[in-house]
Amino acid sequence: MKLKKHNTDLATRMDLLDVTADNQLAKELMGLHENKCRVCQEDRLSCTVRPSCKDRNFLNMLIELGVEPEDLPSFCYSQYLNHIQRFITERKGRRMIDRRLPIKDFLAALRVSSIRHFTTKFKRTWSKSASIQRNNVMLLAGDGLLFHFDFARGIVVMNPVHIKISSLEVLKLYADLFSKYYDLKSEVKDVTLNWWILSIAVDVEGTVESITPVKSKLSGCFDALNVEVSENVVNIHAEVIIDENRKPLLVDDIEKAFIVSSKLRSGEISN
Questions:
Q1: Residue 50's CB: how many other CB atoms inside 10 A?
Q2: If you ran DSSP here, which 8-state letter would residue 5 be given?
Q3: CATH-assigned architecture of domain 168-266
Q4: Are 110 and 118 within 8 A, CB to CB?
Q5: Can you list the positions of beta strands (E) in 184-244?
Q6: 50-53 long-range contacts, CB within 8 A, separation 24+
Q7: Phi-psi category of residue 255: left, alpha or beta, with phi > 0 → left and psi -120 to 50 → alpha
Q8: What is the mean predicted confidence (pLDDT) over 18-32?
Q9: What is the pTM of this model?
Q10: Residue 199 bridge partners (DSSP)
């Protein structure tokens, strides 16, 4: 492991105190975790079934920082790759969320030669899938799995539940993906630079007697929620204000809006 050269990368992400203090803290934290990681890997059985850092979050952080694969803790990384491969291909183990991987190693673990090979192979086995790409970002959803490919950084995030939506473009990208996946009409508008509205139109049968179930299930996901009911159509308008003092908008919040809308359409949510 050669992690010291990434101390500055960690300090920049921390941005808590002043530059000198953050650099010192990053150096100490990286050193402490490197030693902890080394001890953990010496006991391979323990590292395999119960690693010292919960959910291998230290490894996940290193990948997020851009640490090269050859500098990652090797045995821990091999187990990480194996777990992800088995989860995707066999659905074994508990659900993995926010797991990062270099795209090259992700493809190698799944024994596919390219992104096209990956999408072609798995779309054949998934009962439902959707994908969308703009510039250097591609999103792919299939049978409960979600992948965020960032080609500029060379990283893929599997099931990015807690990834923050930091731009209107990314919000539109996810809205378009979930519109295709759940077969719903949606639109994203920007009222101001940091005030956005996600609108979803839901075709329903019969009369909608109450919008309370919809609002209760999406409570806390958005800054404001307006539900309009007309004949056989429910329009959900979710407002978001991007501000450092407010709760961030997460990918999970967006998908939840589409899941609730889909269940409303199918009658799984009572009117």
A1: 10
A2: G
A3: 2-Layer Sandwich (3.30)
A4: yes
A5: 185-192, 195-203, 224-230, 233-241
A6: 51/76, 51/79
A7: alpha
A8: 92
A9: 0.92
A10: 187, 237
Helix or strand (DSSP H, E) at 156: strand 155-158
In the beta sheet, which residues pair with residue 241?
A: 195
Q: Say if residue 8 is exposed, middle or buried (CB neighbours under 10 Å; 0-12, 13-18, 19+).
A: middle
Residue given tokens 């080609």 in the structure block: 151
DSSP-based three-state secondary structure for 246: coil
Write down the pLDDT at residue 206.
66
Dig out the tokens for 66 from the structure: 């851009």
For residue 251, what are its two tokens? 């990918």
What's the pLDDT score for residue 167?
94
User: CA-to-CA distance for 78 and 127, rounded, in angstroms?
Assistant: 30
Residue found under tokens 């194996």:
82
What token pair was written down for 204? Answer: 């329903």
Rg of the chain over CA atoms, in angstroms? 21
Q: What is the mean pLDDT of residues 221-241?
A: 92
259: exposed, middle or buried (C-beta count within 10 Å: 0-12, 13-18, 19+)? Answer: middle
DSSP string of 79-101, one letter each residue: HHHHHHHHHHHH--SS---SEEE
Query: How high is the pLDDT of residue 270?
Result: 62
**In whole angstroms, what is the distance from residue 228 CA to residue 250 CA?**
24
With tokens 């508990």, the residue in question is: 94
Q: Which two tokens stand for residue 3?
A: 């992690």
Provide the 8-state DSSP code for 4. Answer: G
Segments making up each domain of the chain, as ranges:
1-93, 97-162, 168-266
Q: Please, where are the H alpha helices in the chain?
A: 7-14, 19-42, 44-49, 57-65, 74-90, 103-109, 115-123, 168-182, 212-217, 251-266
pLDDT band at 114 (very low <50, low <70, confident <90, very high): very high
Biggest CA–CA distance in the chain, Å, is: 65
Task: Give the SS3 label for residue 207.
Answer: coil
